[in-house]
């Protein structure tokens, strides 16, 4: 019976260690999402440049608008991927709860 008890303690410790790693990874994902959202500032600047040059150079304005759209698409892909990672980490966290409980 003591082997079962100690095995349970080991599983709980392992679960705690996994939980700590998952929590740390989720924080990294959160930080990366915040960083990716900083593209919004650059997009605003590109918008301003497009407006400034728009009256004199329509092609340049279109280029700035295209760059803004590309950045927005890349930002969305990054955030969607990070959200997927966060979901997977949450699922791992639930699984470790079953080990611990």
Taken together, the total number of domains comes to: 1
Let me know the largest β-sheet: none
Structural class: mainly alpha
- Shape category: rod-shaped
Mean pLDDT: 87
Oligomer class: single chain
Topology:
Layout lengths: L1 H35 L2 H16 L3 H43 L1
Report on the structure:
The model has no long low-confidence stretch (mean pLDDT 87). Helix 1 runs antiparallel to helix 3 (58-100) and helix 2 (39-54) packs antiparallel against helix 3. The chain has 3 helices and no strands. It has one domain (2-100). With 101 residues, it is mainly alpha-helical. It is rod-shaped, with a radius of gyration of 23 Å.
Briefly say what this structure is.
With 101 residues, the chain is mainly α.
Highlighted features:
rod-shaped; 0% strand; 3 helices; mainly alpha; single chain; 101 residues
